[in-house]
Amino acid sequence: MKLPLLYDVALALLLARGRQSLVAAAGVTFSITMFIALLGFMAGLNQLLDGLVLNRTPHVRLYNEVQPAPQQPIDRYAGLGRRRHNFIRSVKPRDELPRIHNAGAIVAALRRDPRVRGVAPKTQAQVFYNVGTINLTGTISGIEVEQEARLFDFGSYVVAGNPLSLKTVANSIILGKAAAALMLVGVGDVVQITTVKGSHVQLKVVGLFQSGILELDKVQSYTSLTTAQKLLGEANNYVTDLQVKLHDFTLAPPLAREYAQLYELQAVDIQTANSEFETGTSIRTLISYAVGITLLIVAGFGIYNILNMMIYEKMDTIAILKAVGFAGADVRRLFVAVALAIGLSGGAAGLLCGFGLSVLISHVPFHPASLPSVQFYPVSFDPVYYGIGAVFSLVTTYLAGYFPARKASRVDPVVIIRGK
Questions:
Q1: Which of 97-106, 166-175, 307-316, 384-393 is predicted least confidently?
Q2: Pairing between strand 134-143 and 158-161?
Q3: pLDDT digits (tens, 9 = 90+) for 396-406
Q4: Which conformational region is residue 299 in: left (phi greater than 0), alpha (psi within -120 to 50 degrees), or beta?
Q5: Strand 220-224 relative to strand 134-143: parallel, antiparallel, unpaired?
């Protein structure tokens, strides 16, 4: 049978059951709208949370951890003999600083590696913030400000002051916002700290930063690499950490093992350091897809029920069509076309409504106290979600129309007409 004629008949059936067809299309529209909005919102939320980790966490961290000597002096004493053993308790670590030896050469080699996007050296210093007669425990990280801003988006976490002031202002510090609140200081004030060696140093506050983790903001501060080395009384080649950013962070685990063996350092990759966080992201994504697909399947059942009722009520019409020459395959194509028409119209409207709802959500103000850089609810407009929604709308409506259509194609016109 010619397709134009089939389409004309399909249109007539749709118009004859206009209200039911509209309800079915509205069900598809609602399902696609919520599918797009839900996945976009959850993906945006995941990207926001992932950014908190990815922006502030190196893909590979190289450090020199203080560990006990693998071989104790008594192990070298040959007088014990083969049948004797020594038992040592409370083994003390080796008497050495947690510095990375030959850090300059390692940094230069890493920066020549084509897999590496950048390297940011860091020096950690444990200090006490002096607040009157009270000493607050703190940690100061000496950083190369430009590298930290380029690789870890450090500037977006500085809520007051200019991060580049660490480079231009001598003996300066960027305090955590929570620590500054405890000490009642702000930008331009001077804080006094005591180093682990007992030295008293005054540092000028040139900025405040907020990481989103309150306990971290109470103890963590930043200064320039040179100032941190001075606080520790070490030379300008004293570095405790090398933070490596890669072009492809999925290479982090094998590269961490490679660098650890090559440079004889401890190394930890971002996947290992944040394995629990990645699990939470995967679960949230899985739940979003499950809920969205469930909505589409429910809409498919609605179309299936409507087509079943349409076939039941149009048995005489089907019998007449077959009596005048329509084959069973033509009848099947006819009702599949009706289902696809509902799916296409409802799916197209759903994609537009889903996009509109996502835009609306992305303009809703959202000001979490722990995330000063966030102004609105995060929403992802990834075209993949729209493609998945379109494909699922067609697949579910096709399957919802195929089974009733197959039933209609098997109708015996003689039995129907004789019954009438």
A1: 307-316
A2: unpaired
A3: 778 877 777 77
A4: alpha
A5: parallel
Three-state SS at 92: coil
The encoded tokens of residue 346 equal 């409802």
Q: How many CB atoms lie within 10 A of CB 176?
A: 25
Nearest to 301 by CA among 185, 178, 400, 233: 400
Residue pair 159/209 in contact by the 8 Å Cβ criterion: yes
Report how far residue 46's alpha carbon sits from residue 285's, in angstroms, rounded to the nearest whole number: 8
- Which band of pLDDT confidence, cut at 50, 70 and 90, is reported for residue 419? low
Taking the C-alpha atoms of residue 28 and residue 351, their distance in angstroms, rounded to an integer, is: 10
Query: CA–CA distance from 116 to each of 163, 253, 270, 285, 343 (Å)?
Result: 24, 14, 14, 29, 48
The answer to whether 265 touches 62, Cβ cutoff 8 Å, is yes
Tokens 């039941």, located at residue? 312
> Domain residues of the chain, as ranges?
3-55+277-419, 58-77+93-273
CA distances from 242 to 178, 211, 266, 338 (A): 27, 20, 11, 63
Segment 136-161, tens digit of pLDDT: 888 899 988 888 888 888 887 888 88
**DSSP state letter for 250:** G
Q: What are the distances in angstroms from CA 21 to CA 5, 6, 48, 304?
A: 20, 18, 40, 11
For residue 260, what are the CA distances in angstroms to 271, 272, 324? 16, 15, 81
pLDDT digits 0-9 by tens, 375-416: 788 888 888 888 888 887 788 778 877 777 777 677 666 666
CA diameter of the chain:
112
Residue 222: strand pairing partners: 141, 174
Dihedral (C-alpha) 225, 227, 229, 233: value to the nearest 10 degrees? 180
